[in-house]
């Protein structure tokens, strides 16, 4: 059946080189374990970058995938379908929203949100109201509009002129936000906790100040919950624990547990500015993705599951505190629920990737969030035994990195 022999090296021969994947090639996953093509197993602390919230090959999701796969995959948006309508109803029953638009990724959900915000402002207030306020170090995706709005200039540079009217402010800086948000502001887009930017929680007072400033100036508040959403923080959406309700919320990553799907959620009045033909997608809202996401949302919105996320988050923090007592590695451990960032001390400045590589060599998969932060985003239902085993392996990996550093110093 396999016509071509492939391995990690094949990547360098056949792929556009925008990624630098690990040296091993995952072949199979179950729950919080992954096996590579050599049969070695790994404890997965990455969850596919906060995507496989229910672990790999969750039996209920596999069942829905099979059943819907034998029923109807794709029908185009010239028709609607039952799974997407059920998914919209379920999401709306759980949130502030009463309108949904489905896409296939976080970037596309944000693209829709930003386009909608521009439409609303221009139609309600006129062509001058186009300024989008965003934050330094934020991440909103890789389309040209979303890298321009994102707060990491390296992702937008070198592609020619960026869309006009975008401003980047320091995150969690209330005074800067109050000063910048004004009559020309069309929207403020913010991650309630920055993910890619280093796992930095938004201060509730800061988020409240954004809400107030948006209300004062008729601007829309967009929460990018692509990473924080669908149970990741121990709340179904992170906004639910901030006391702030956005006008538009974007969600993706965990929404499909790995089946590509994203969504923009908003209210009826705002949605009314997107009329037939104004925006669209071929795949968005297809019955296969929608059926899977509907099951994901049903399972993750269970209060007992969300409580488990908080407990597991505490367990990881306790284990990190223990590691820190022994190795003095972390300047700070941040985050919420099962999105946790451990920032390295000056002694290990810029070396997060070395820990990730060592972890892989010892059978644990781990993420970075910038050069100085180790990021944990495991399955929301990672079994305690896997957590323990993962930390045993991680400890060995840290011993190897720290030992190598001590050896180098002794020489
Ligand atoms: C990952 C991410 C995105 C982009 O999602 P894609 O599915 O990769 O397009 C957008 N915003 C945030 C906060 C993210 O973490």
From TrEMBL:
<feature type="binding site">
    <location>
        <begin position="106"/>
        <end position="107"/>
    </location>
    <ligand>
        <name>pyridoxal 5'-phosphate</name>
    </ligand>
</feature>
<dbReference type="GO" id="GO:0045303">
    <property type="term" value="F:diaminobutyrate-2-oxoglutarate transaminase activity"/>
</dbReference>
<comment type="subunit">
    <text>Homodimer.</text>
</comment>
<comment type="pathway">
    <text>Amino-acid biosynthesis; L-arginine biosynthesis; N(2)-acetyl-L-ornithine from L-glutamate: step 4/4.</text>
</comment>
<dbReference type="GO" id="GO:0030170">
    <property type="term" value="F:pyridoxal phosphate binding"/>
</dbReference>
<dbReference type="GO" id="GO:0003992">
    <property type="term" value="F:N2-acetyl-L-ornithine:2-oxoglutarate 5-aminotransferase activity"/>
</dbReference>
<dbReference type="InterPro" id="IPR015424">
    <property type="entry name" value="PyrdxlP-dep_Trfase"/>
</dbReference>
<dbReference type="InterPro" id="IPR005814">
    <property type="entry name" value="Aminotrans_3"/>
</dbReference>
<comment type="similarity">
    <text>Belongs to the class-III pyridoxal-phosphate-dependent aminotransferase family. ArgD subfamily.</text>
</comment>
<feature type="binding site">
    <location>
        <position position="281"/>
    </location>
    <ligand>
        <name>N(2)-acetyl-L-ornithine</name>
    </ligand>
</feature>
<keyword id="KW-0963">Cytoplasm</keyword>
<feature type="binding site">
    <location>
        <position position="139"/>
    </location>
    <ligand>
        <name>pyridoxal 5'-phosphate</name>
    </ligand>
</feature>
<dbReference type="GO" id="GO:0005737">
    <property type="term" value="C:cytoplasm"/>
</dbReference>
<comment type="pathway">
    <text>Amine and polyamine biosynthesis; ectoine biosynthesis; L-ectoine from L-aspartate 4-semialdehyde: step 1/3.</text>
</comment>
<dbReference type="InterPro" id="IPR017652">
    <property type="entry name" value="Ac/SucOrn_transaminase_bac"/>
</dbReference>
<keyword id="KW-0055">Arginine biosynthesis</keyword>
<dbReference type="InterPro" id="IPR004636">
    <property type="entry name" value="AcOrn/SuccOrn_fam"/>
</dbReference>
<dbReference type="Pfam" id="PF00202">
    <property type="entry name" value="Aminotran_3"/>
</dbReference>
<protein>
    <recommendedName>
        <fullName>Acetylornithine aminotransferase</fullName>
        <ecNumber>2.6.1.11</ecNumber>
    </recommendedName>
</protein>
<feature type="binding site">
    <location>
        <position position="142"/>
    </location>
    <ligand>
        <name>N(2)-acetyl-L-ornithine</name>
    </ligand>
</feature>
<dbReference type="InterPro" id="IPR049704">
    <property type="entry name" value="Aminotrans_3_PPA_site"/>
</dbReference>
<keyword id="KW-0028">Amino-acid biosynthesis</keyword>
<keyword id="KW-0032">Aminotransferase</keyword>
<keyword id="KW-0663">Pyridoxal phosphate</keyword>
<dbReference type="InterPro" id="IPR015422">
    <property type="entry name" value="PyrdxlP-dep_Trfase_small"/>
</dbReference>
<feature type="binding site">
    <location>
        <position position="282"/>
    </location>
    <ligand>
        <name>pyridoxal 5'-phosphate</name>
    </ligand>
</feature>
<dbReference type="InterPro" id="IPR050103">
    <property type="entry name" value="Class-III_PLP-dep_AT"/>
</dbReference>
<dbReference type="InterPro" id="IPR015421">
    <property type="entry name" value="PyrdxlP-dep_Trfase_major"/>
</dbReference>
<feature type="binding site">
    <location>
        <begin position="224"/>
        <end position="227"/>
    </location>
    <ligand>
        <name>pyridoxal 5'-phosphate</name>
    </ligand>
</feature>
<dbReference type="GO" id="GO:0006526">
    <property type="term" value="P:L-arginine biosynthetic process"/>
</dbReference>
<dbReference type="GO" id="GO:0042802">
    <property type="term" value="F:identical protein binding"/>
</dbReference>
<feature type="modified residue" description="N6-(pyridoxal phosphate)lysine">
    <location>
        <position position="253"/>
    </location>
</feature>
<keyword id="KW-0808">Transferase</keyword>
């Amino acid at each position: 059946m396999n016509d071509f022999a492939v391995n990690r090296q094949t990547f360098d021969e056949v792929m556009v080189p925008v990624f630098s994947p690990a040296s091993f090639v995952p072949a199979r996953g179950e729950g919080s374990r992954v096996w590579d093509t050599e049969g070695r197993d790994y404890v997965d602390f990455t969850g596919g970058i906060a995507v496989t919230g229910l672990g790999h090959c969750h039996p209920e999701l596999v069942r829905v995938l099979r059943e819907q796969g034998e029923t109807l995959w794709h029908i185009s948006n010239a028709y609607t379908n039952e799974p997407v309508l059920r998914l919209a109803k379920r999401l709306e029953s759980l949130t502030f929203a009463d309108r949904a638009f489905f896409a296939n990724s976080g970037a596309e959900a944000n693209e829709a949100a930003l386009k909608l915000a521009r439409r609303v402002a221009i139609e309600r207030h006129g062509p001058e109201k186009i300024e989008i306020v965003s934050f330094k170090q934020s991440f909103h995706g890789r389309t040209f509009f979303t890298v321009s709005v994102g707060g990491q200039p390296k992702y937008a540079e070198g592609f020619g002129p960026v869309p006009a009217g975008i401003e980047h402010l320091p995150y969690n800086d209330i005074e800067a936000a109050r000063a910048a948000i004004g009559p020309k502001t069309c929207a403020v887009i913010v991650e309630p906790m920055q993910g890619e930017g280093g796992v930095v929680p938004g201060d509730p007072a800061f988020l409240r100040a954004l809400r107030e400033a948006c209300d004062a100036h008729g601007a829309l508040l967009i929460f990018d919950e692509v990473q924080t959403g669908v149970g990741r923080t121990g709340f179904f959406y992170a906004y639910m624990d901030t006391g702030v309700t956005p006008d538009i919320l974007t969600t993706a990553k965990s929404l499909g547990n790995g089946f590509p799907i994203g969504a923009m959620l908003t209210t009826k009045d705002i949605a009314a500015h997107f009329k037939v033909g104004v925006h669209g997608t071929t795949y968005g809202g297809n019955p296969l993705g929608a059926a899977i996401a509907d099951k994901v949302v049903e399972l993750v919105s269970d209060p007992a599951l969300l409580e488990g996320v908080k407990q597991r988050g505490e367990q990881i923090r306790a284990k990190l505190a223990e590691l820190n007592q022994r190795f003095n590695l972390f300047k700070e451990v941040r985050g919420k629920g099962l999105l946790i960032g451990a920032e390295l001390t000056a002694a290990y400045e810029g070396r997060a990737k070395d820990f990730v590589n060592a972890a892989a060599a010892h059978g644990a998969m781990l993420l970075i969030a910038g050069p100085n932060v180790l990021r944990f985003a495991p399955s929301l239902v990672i079994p305690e035994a896997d957590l323990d085993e993962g930390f045993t392996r991680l400890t060995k990996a840290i011993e190897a990195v720290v030992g190598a550093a001590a050896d180098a110093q002794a020489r």
